[in-house]
């Protein structure tokens, strides 16, 4: 089976071919040009699909909240104008005649990790991705739990600080305002007056001021995970995002979490995601293969 799999993000559309053994080949990437709007993005997906011979299935992982049954965007922020309501599955299937699966990016990544990566062999886990915000996915009893309106796992907007700082969602005190990778970067900028990215912050790990900001940020991460562990009692917490490649962070999260949790919850482990940029494409390809 030849599967064409896409990962549509705010800045890039990545795509690759995938076979029965779920090996990705011919990996390519084009700019999303999000300002051109959601309709144009899907037109370009169709153009790519039409130019490749012998595709049996199409898998699409995309930013935004997705009705994975109808394959349409329920809601997307203004980062991709006019994307809300886009009937991706219908448009792509009508134009190409190829069966297509569409899923939200974090859910696709969770499937990728469940089948091929860090959560392989586990039946209940949660995923959190720490980047500009915090994305989440819930995988229970061997399958994705998507909630009443395909939106479960919006962990970035659980409130960890009553009357806290303003969030982009309109609320205040949300987890991602304090614990995302951007929150760490902002914290260094506000407290020390210097602009550093995540990698640069780690290069200055020995600096006591930076170390103290980093440690306070890890406490913020742990507050959120602790609450989620009490809700879901998962076997595993998969933490994604480039910053989680720093082993210091996952080691510290585990050590602090173990101290904080009630004994019956302490069998949970926090591990970094293993599939990196390929998780979304592999997850979408897997879902497409099941169609
Ligand atoms: Zn929020």
Question: Can you describe this structure?
Answer:
- By secondary structure, the chain is of the alpha/beta class.
- It folds into 2 domains: 3-108 and 277-290, ATPase, nucleotide binding domain (Nucleotidyltransferase, domain 5); 121-272, Nucleotidyltransferase, domain 5 (2-Layer Sandwich).
- It has helices at residues 38-50, 88-96, 105-116, 175-179, 181-192, 198-203, 208-232, 247-260, 278-290; strands at residues 3-8, 12-18, 24-31, 57-62, 65-67, 72-75, 100-104, 125-130, 134-140, 143-145, 236-240, 269-272.
- The strands form 3 sheets. The protein has a 5-stranded mixed β-sheet, sandwiched between helices. A 5-stranded mixed β-sheet has the order 10-9-8-11-12, sandwiched between helices.
- Helix 1 (38-50) packs parallel to helix 2 (88-96).
- The longest helix has 25 residues, at 208-232.
- The model has no long low-confidence stretch (mean pLDDT 95).
- It binds zinc ion (ZN).
- Residues 157, 167, 169, 171, 174 line the site of zinc ion.
Summary of the model, kept short:
Helices cover 37% and strands 22% of the residues. The chain has helices at 38-50, 88-96, 105-116, 175-179, 181-192, 198-203, 208-232, 247-260, 278-290, and strands at 3-8, 12-18, 24-31, 57-62, 65-67, 72-75, 100-104, 125-130, 134-140, 143-145, 236-240, 269-272.
């Amino acid at each position: 089976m030849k599967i064409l799999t896409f990962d549509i993000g705010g800045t890039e559309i990545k795509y690759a071919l995938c076979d029965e053994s779920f090996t990705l080949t011919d990996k390519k990437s084009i700019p999303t040009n999000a300002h051109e709007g959601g309709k144009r993005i899907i037109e370009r997906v169709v153009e790519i699909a039409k130019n490749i011979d012998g595709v049996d299935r199409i898998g699409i992982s995309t930013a935004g909240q997705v009705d994975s049954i109808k394959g349409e965007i329920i809601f997307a922020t203004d980062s991709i104008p006019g994307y809300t309501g886009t009937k991706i599955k219908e448009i792509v299937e009508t134009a190409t005649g190829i069966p297509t699966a569409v899923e939200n990016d974090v859910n696709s990544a969770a499937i990728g990790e469940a089948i091929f990566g860090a959560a392989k062999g586990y039946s209940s886990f949660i995923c959190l991705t720490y980047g500009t915000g915090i994305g989440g996915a819930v995988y229970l009893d061997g399958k994705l739990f998507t909630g009443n309106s395909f939106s479960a796992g919006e962990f970035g907007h659980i409130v960890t600080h009553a009357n806290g700082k303003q969030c982009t969602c309109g609320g205040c005190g949300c987890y991602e305002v304090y614990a995302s990778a951007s929150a760490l970067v902002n914290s260094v900028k506000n407290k020390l007056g210097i602009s550093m990215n995540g990698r640069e912050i780690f290069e200055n790990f020995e600096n006591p001021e930076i170390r103290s900001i980093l440690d306070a940020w890890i406490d913020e991460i742990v507050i959120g995970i602790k609450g989620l562990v009490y809700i879901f009692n998962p076997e595993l917490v998969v933490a994604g995002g480039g910053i989680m490649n720093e082993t210091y962070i996952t080691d510290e999260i585990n050590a602090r979490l173990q101290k904080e949790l009630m004994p019956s919850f302490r069998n949970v482990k926090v591990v970094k995601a293993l599939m990196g940029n390929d998780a979304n494409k592999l997850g979408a390809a897997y879902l497409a293969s099941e169609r």
